Structure formats: C-alpha cells, structure tokens
C-alpha cells in the first residue's frame, strides 16, 4: 500500500461521494467518483483502480448486482457500504467476494482504517522469501498455491481467481498445515481485525473458498471444520 493508491467511490448520493472524496484525498489517496454501475465500469476502463468503495442501495443496478458482475472478470478489492443493520446484505456481499463492509452512516476514521487494511493485504499478502530462496509453493490436490506470485493454479496451469482476502486465508492455512486455527487467530492474522463472536465473515469466506478448491464443498477434505474451535488445513 502507498499514498498514491487510487480509490473508486461509487455511490448515488452526491453528498456522500463528495464527503468521501474530500476526506480520503486529504489523506493522500487519489479518488475517482461514480454515481452508478455504468459510470463505475467506465472508470474501470479508463483508470487503474486499487480499491472500490461500493454502495449497495443504488437505483437501477444495485451494488450487489454490480459486484456479482464485477467478480466474473475483475478481482479489484471491494469494500461495500451498507445501510445500518442490513445483515443479509453484508452476508450476501461477502459470499459474492467483497473484501470488507461498512455500515452507513460511515465513520470516516474507521473507513480509512478498513481501506488501508484491505490495500495492505493486496500489496503484501504474505512474507516475501529472502534472496536466494526458492519460490514458496504449496501443492494440494489438483492445485498449487504460489505464495510469492500470489496465485492459485490448477494442475493444467490455469489460474483460479481469488480475492485478496481469499488468498490471505489460503496462504495462512498453507503456512499452518495440520494446525487448528480458531476464528480469533484467523481474523487477527488474515483480516486485520479482532474477533467479534457475532461476525460470520470468516465462515462465509471459507465457505466461498471451499467452493473453489474442494471437490465436494459440502464435505470438505482440504479445509476442515473442527467443531467448537475453528478450522484445520489438512490436504493430505
């Protein structure tokens, strides 16, 4: 992450766009604004975007529909902006691949912290190997996780698209093979946030990750649930 990161703010409320643009610009970010999904796509074609702040409740094509469409071809980090108390929207957004979410009215200091955390995960997903070391890889089943290139590939060489958070989770598990990790450890090490016992984000993200790597996501054999504790990565 650096001070020249470009953030795309997509919200149909002009006051909100201007408020976020003013606040984040003063903190060193480049800001591009969009009022709807069509403008968002146009901005993505015109500019290299590092992160999107995407409102859910927009007229016309809403934020969730936009996110679903976006994730078919683009893995740019997305932080969703949701109406206060809309738990269902948050869950659906995470299942579709959002990297984080914030409830409106937005606390600007929390917004800045969340944005920096997501950009930090994107820029530095894992510790880089020191000079002279072989690239760190973690083969499992039909896949190989390249911890240096931040890529997951099939045995045929095809890349499996992962969000920054999904890669962080998978690399965390790969580096702790055979070790049970509780939700607190996972959130602290892969999500830059302390555990809220009512926060389902980790369970949702692991469920989404399983759909990409497990032969049968309903009966996971790679990332297994340890009831009452957390999860274990045991591909063998």
For the structure shown, list the relevant keywords.
alpha/beta, 37% helix, five-stranded parallel beta sheet, 2 domains, 236 residues, Rossmann fold, 8 helices, Arc Repressor Mutant, subunit A, four-stranded antiparallel beta sheet
Can you describe what's shown?
By secondary structure, this protein is α/β, with parallel strands linked by helices. It has 2 domains: 6-123, Response regulator (Rossmann fold); 137-233, Orthogonal Bundle (Arc Repressor Mutant, subunit A). Helix content is 37%, strand content 22%. The strands form 3 sheets. It has a 5-stranded parallel beta sheet with strand order 2-1-3-4-5, with helices on both faces. Strands 6-7-8-9 form a 4-stranded antiparallel beta sheet, covered by helices on one side. A 3-stranded antiparallel beta sheet has the order 10-12-11. A hairpin with a 2-residue loop joins strand 6 and strand 7 (143-146). It is globular, with a radius of gyration of 18 Å. Residues 125-135 have low confidence and may be disordered.
